[in-house]
Amino acid sequence: MGDFGKLTIGSMLSINIVLFIIGFLMYRKWRNPTYLKFLGAFSLMLFANAGMALMPHKLMSAYMFFISLYAAGMIIAQIGIFRLYYNKRTDKLYVHLGGTAVTLITAAMSLFLPVQMSSFLVFLSVVGVTLYTLIKIFPDVGLNPQYFMVTILFAMQLLLHLSGAFTGYELLAELSLILSVFASFIVFTMIFEKIIGVMQAATYTSTRDEVTGLFTQKHFIHQANQALSKGKTVGVLYIEIQNPTHISEEESFKRAGRAVGRALEGSGFAGRYQSDVIVALITSSNLPLAELANSIRMKIDVEASSTVLIGYIDTKPEFTLDDHIREAKEGAIRTKQSGLNRIFDLDQSKILAD
Question: Which residues form the GGDEF domain (predicted)?
């Protein structure tokens, strides 16, 4: 085996070792059937690649045993990719299952069959999967360029090997490994891309309230305490949503969250502090707090169809976050009790009510 062949085999093994580790870690963490498919597929592919690396010749029965296992692993990986990218679909993928069965049977019979026959059977199963993907899957779900490339490269790899088996040119079989490297690498990028997406989604859902889209209480407190410790704050708003009309309470809060989020763009951040309360920390503002609070009140009043009670306070260096929220809340409560619809000053807190 020349230096180029060693480089190709080494690249294949490296990529498939990484894929196996990823498959193992994904299944260990989430333990669902899709990740089990990936673990099984990458185990087969790694075992097959290791066996292929030990074979001095690429057109022999023992080599066909390993390439048949590799083909089975790649087909199972395609099933996993389909489930991962199109998790809302329930297609049974019988063609893929049939292709997997044919390649596994071929692996079991490869030591007793001519190389040409084994190569043809594996190629036939892969062509069936490829055609089904191109004719049935992509028209239904849309063309995914990476998925398309994996499908085509895999089929071309087996075509090159089949050509080598019938012509006796081992170079064709060796060239097919280059396509295998590219196909495995694209599988890696697809899975890595999805893992990043899952992690980002998990991070978002752990820090964002699912109804309002604002920070959760825990994340808001963490971020607000950091901002207060740095002294980069202007004021705190306490916003209570009451008595939504014409729409549900959840929809009212959803609209209120959007309104607050838009109003605070570039000025600060907010979180859902209680079931009916939003607290905002103003970090910078071109408007006085009174005007900003009034603007937010009107936005919520119009968009969320609710009664809005807002209390606010200028940040004080000696106050903790709890102190600021308590003062703003007390001001809002006084306003609610007085039933006023104006801005005024009470105990260092300014309040606004509807």
Answer: 232-348
Residue 263 pLDDT > 80? yes
Highest mean pLDDT pick, 50-59, 63-72, 207-216, 325-334: 63-72
- In 3D space, the residue among 302, 271, 266 whose CA is nearest the CA of residue 284 turns out to be 266
Can you tell me the distance from the alpha carbon of 22 to that of 42, in angstroms, rounded to the nearest whole number? Answer: 9
Residues forming beta bridges with residue 272, ordered by sequence position: 278
HEC sequence for 134-191: HHHHHHHHCCCHHHHHHHHHHHHHHHHHHHHHHHCCHHHHHHHHHHHHHHHHHHHHHH
All residues at 6 or more sequence positions from 251 whose CB lies less than 8 Å from its CB, including other chains: 244
Tell me the one-letter amino acid at 245: T
- Residue 231's alpha-carbon distances to 156, 234, 251, 280, 320, in angstroms, are 62, 9, 35, 16, 12
- Taking residues 290-306, report their average pLDDT: 82
pLDDT surpassing 80 at residue 199: no
Q: What's the confidence (pLDDT) of residue 341? A: 44
Report the candidate in 204, 207, 299, 311 with the shortest Cα–Cα distance to residue 255. Answer: 299
Cβ-based neighbours of 279, under 8 Å, separated by 6 or more: 220, 224, 236, 237, 238, 239, 270, 271, 273, 325, 328
The amino acid sitting at 190 is M
Residues 6+ apart with CB under 8 A from 142: none
pLDDT average, residue stretch 285-297: 84
Q: Where residue 35 falls among pLDDT bands split at 50, 70, 90?
A: very high
